[in-house]
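Shipment paperwork, digital attachment
Item: protein structure file
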Amino acid sequence: MTTTLTEPVITNCVKSELVKRKVLALNAGNRTTQWINPDSEPITIPSVLKEFEDWEDVPSGDTESPVIELLSEDFQVSSRYVLGVEAKIQKGKPAFAYDKIKLAKKLMFAALEPDVDKSMLVVETLRVALPDSRNTNNASILKGLEGTFNFIRNGQRLTASIRKVELMDETLPAYKYAITHRKFQRPTSKINGILDLGGGTAVGRLYSPSGQPLRKQDVIKRGTYELANLINAAMQRTQNESLDLTQIMDAIAHGTYITESGVDFSNVFEKCRDTWLDEIRAEVRVRWADYFKEIGEVLIIGGSAPLAKQLEIDTKKRFRIVENFQTISIEGMIL
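Attachment content:
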């Protein structure tokens, strides 16, 4: 399902300085923020934000660490922050520390990446992913992404106008990509599905042959943030203080199972991972029980998809991890 919001677009621009884009996509998750750059390449950075006071030095910024300076109506800098890798190095706050929906208004400037030598950008449609596009409160907040904005991105002064915001349910872009690129290996099946294992949430959704989501069968559980909590609890027997959950998730992603502070949790990882996955699998069995005979295939996506390898094995790839599990959603958002 998609929800559309509209806003008038700027027209008084010098043509040579203006670039128009029909569709721009923003997938701002709890762990990563993604967009498609002007060269049609998916960009992924950590969803971490570091704000700067007036007296603090600001880095120059690059692809992995966009530096944003927001300008007021009189073109004075009103806010300065860096996103991504540099924000993480400078101990900025992860998206988990914010309201993710409200944070989108800061994260979106990463996606407003200009063409070379262009200072004005008009976006006909900005697509934003969220768990449920029917949530009216979230729709109201995300309406704030519409309008005209003056800002500096990595040292380049820009004016960007977003005419329309389109909200997309998580899993829908991946489903569209899978259908378009024939990723489902059993295309004649009556029903197929997507299981998105993210940092904040794990979302499972079934789709009818016509592409309609079967809402009553939705599976929504906690993502790897919950796995990190399980690991933290298991390590309390040997640790005198709580572990940093972000460090745990980073160590899982890197496959080291050793936090930045040097705590090795490899001895509890497998048990905690299996406990976390078993809760998701149990919910899937309950919610999808009436459709199991009709389900052809479920594609496993999201940054934590590799953790579900045993599920792929146990189901003989009826539940299958796709090759582009990290980028399939953002790639599907521009179709």
